[in-house]
Structures are given as structure tokens and as C-alpha cells.
Amino acid sequence: MPIVTIQVTREGTAPDRQSVTAEEKAALIKGASELLLNVLNKPLEATFVVIEEVDTENWGLGGLPVLEYRRQLAAKMK
Amino acid sequence: MPIVTIQVTREGTAPDRQSVTAEEKAALIKGASELLLNVLNKPLEATFVVIEEVDTENWGLGGLPVLEYRRQLAAKMK
Amino acid sequence: MPIVTIQVTREGTAPDRQSVTAEEKAALIKGASELLLNVLNKPLEATFVVIEEVDTENWGLGGLPVLEYRRQLAAKMK
Amino acid sequence: MPIVTIQVTREGTAPDRQSVTAEEKAALIKGASELLLNVLNKPLEATFVVIEEVDTENWGLGGLPVLEYRRQLAAKMK
Amino acid sequence: MPIVTIQVTREGTAPDRQSVTAEEKAALIKGASELLLNVLNKPLEATFVVIEEVDTENWGLGGLPVLEYRRQLAAKMK
Amino acid sequence: MPIVTIQVTREGTAPDRQSVTAEEKAALIKGASELLLNVLNKPLEATFVVIEEVDTENWGLGGLPVLEYRRQLAAKMK
């Protein structure tokens, strides 16, 4: 009876996308459920998966909102 | 000082509703707070309740997004 | 398919107990599941309940660990 | 590698605001990350901060949705 | 910068084990991180995985603690 | 009425300690509560803080349990 919670920033994986697609979400659900089946022998039916998309201004890293963190990291890399 | 977190899919309990209503949310908050009072003797004032509504495409069960899971289950039942 | 998470301090409801008892946990699980059935018509089978017991030194309120908070509150009440 | 999750009601801190501002969120992220650095010596880079804004009708206290709780409390205080 | 939280009951996958083994935990961490890499192109370094083991008396299903639920289900199946 | 959840690995900040000390936890509780007061004007009384200590074998990063991740990182740095 596992519960897998996946928290990601609300962003697309391609320039023309604003968020995770329904297909990508289905792949996460399938993959997480199969992982619990393969590693701990939990039947697929027993696993709940919850995906939480978090707005980028609500996600922090390195003491900064994530988009600002990436900007500063990119600037340092130049 | 309990915290009760209730995660449900964002769906209505009747065909013409898209989500949990404010009345239903108030009933969940009241019921969860009274449960902690009755079982563990926690005063109503001490309990926080947080309701999280999760889009159906973000909720997985049986390795599938929940609406697809229900479709396949319904098909099997025929 | 709701998930109900109940976080409480790891304390007994009587002087001779150090923690929530198995009977009290069973009552929380039963009550939370019935609440979702009554309010949102979710079948008992569909609801997961997870109880998290938190050590009192890991729980804060009013800027203080909870036992210290209660001590100061009790002193003020005298 | 700490994770700090901050749950607040979706409300503004001034009458003309409907929610937490981006500046306030950045201050929460900075403050939480510095707290972990100062107290536990965790490098800023190691800390994730996630802010969750919860609609007021989804937040309960004293057995009531929070706005109703405040209304009743204000009435008692008169 | 995803966070994956995996909640499972504290049980072994073989009769002589009382809990998830370190090897199984490492496999869950590896699998969850690779899933985020494969589906959303998130670098392994960016993903945090947290495994929470929950005592069986703290996990409820069908309105019952999970071991009692399984007992009743097994009895029905006879 | 904010809730701040702080998840850290169960480790000491000095070689002779196995976990976060009670003093460090009190400092986290105080700091987190003051942060919400300073940034969002939330009264200290309104903020709950919950600290979750996670065993190092239950925390993953870079696709590895955290201690193994640090070992490989240290080896690369030589």
C-alpha cells in the first residue's frame, strides 16, 4: 500500500510547453508503480501516486527562487 | 496540536459539480477536528485541517491515471 | 481514493501511557475513513490513512518546543 | 540536504493583495535557507524550500473553515 | 529539482525480515531518480528521494489497520 | 496559521553527535516562527513547526543513498 508523492516545478520539458503533459504524468505514474512492484513486490493496484506541480516562484534552492538561482548559476558559468 | 491533511481528487460528488463544495469542505474540517477530540481528547482549537484537491490527471492508481484506471475497471466489469 | 494523514505528538492520553495506543489508532483510522464516506461518498476501501507520531521536541508552537510552550502557558495562567 | 515546506493560506498581507507576493516568497526562501545554515551548518545550496499556498476554504481551525473561525472569534471579542 | 517521497509500511519482503533492506532502499532511490531523468529530463543530481517507513498499526485501509484489513480479506477469500 | 515542516537527515553537527540536539531543534522552531512573523506578519502563536529526522539510508540524492553519494563525491574531488 505505498504512496509515492512526486513534487516538480510547473514547467514544460520543451520551449513551447508551460507544464508537465498528461502523457508525462502517466509515464511517471506507471514508472513509480512498477518500481514498487519490482523492488518491494507491491502489486500495482496497491500503489497510489500523487503528482504535485509547484509554481517556480514557490520553489527555492540556494536561498533563491529557482529561476533566479538558475540565472545566477548561468551567469557564473560564462 | 494535531494536523490532519486530507488529499482528494478534484471532482464533484454530483454530475453537475466540478469540485468539492465549500459545504463539504466545512463538513470534513468539522468531522476531522471532532474525531481528534473524541479519540485523543485534543481540543478543537488545537487541530489544523488542510484539504488538498489533486487534479485527476495527477493522481495514479494501479499504474494508471485514475480516470483511465476507472475506465479499464468498468470495462472489465461488463 | 483519498489519503488522510494525521500528525500528532507522541504522547499518551493518560498519565501511564507514553504514546497513542493501538486501539486509539484503530479508532482514528475508522473515523477518518467513515468521514470520507459520509461527506464525499468515498467507499471505505478507497481511503488510505497514515498516522505520524512526532516526538514532542520535534513539534513547535508559539516559537517554542511544545512542552516548553505549555510550561510557559501554564505559568501565565496561574 | 534539508527540505523546508511552508504551508500558508492564500491571502495577502495588505488589503489590496490576494496572495503572498513574489518578494515575500523570496524572503521566505532566503530566511529558511539561512536558518538551516546558521543552526545546522547546512550549505545554502543543499536546502530546498517549497511554499504551498492553501485556499482559505481548504484550511480549518477550531473545527471551522479559517475565515468562519476568525469571524466567530472577532464576534466573541466584541 | 524534484522531490520524490515514498511511503511504505515497515515490513520485510521475506519472512525473516522486519523492514525494507538497505539494498531495497538504494534500488528505490536509484529507480525514482532515473524515472525523473527519463520522463522529465531532470538530472540525477537534481532529485531528492525521501523514504518514509510507517509502522503497520499506523497505516489504515478500508477503515481498518492494515494487518486487520488483510486478515479479514484473507478470511473472506477462503 | 502557517505550518512549517523541516526535513533533515538524522545526523549530528559534530563528530560525537548522532542526531540534531534539542537545542538545535528549539533554534529551528524559534527561527522558522520568527521568519513567518517578519515576512508575513503571522503571530508566533499561529505557526506550527514540525521537524522530521530522516535516517541517512532513507535519503537519496544523485540516484544514491546520501552517504554513498558523499563518498563518491569526495573520491572525485581528490
From TrEMBL, chains A, B, C, D, E, F:
Q: Does the keyword Isomerase apply?
A: yes
This protein's UniProt keywords = Isomerase
What SUPFAM superfamilies does this protein map onto?
Answer: Tautomerase/MIF
**Domain 4-oxalocrotonate tautomerase-like intervals:** 2-66
What is this protein identified as?
Answer: Tautomerase
Q: What is its EC number?
A: 5.3.2.-
**Short name of one Pfam family:** Tautomerase
The EC class name is isomerase
Alphabetized InterPro entries for the sequence: 4-OT, 4-OT-like_dom, Tautomerase/MIF_sf
- Hey, which family's this protein in? Belongs to the 4-oxalocrotonate tautomerase family.
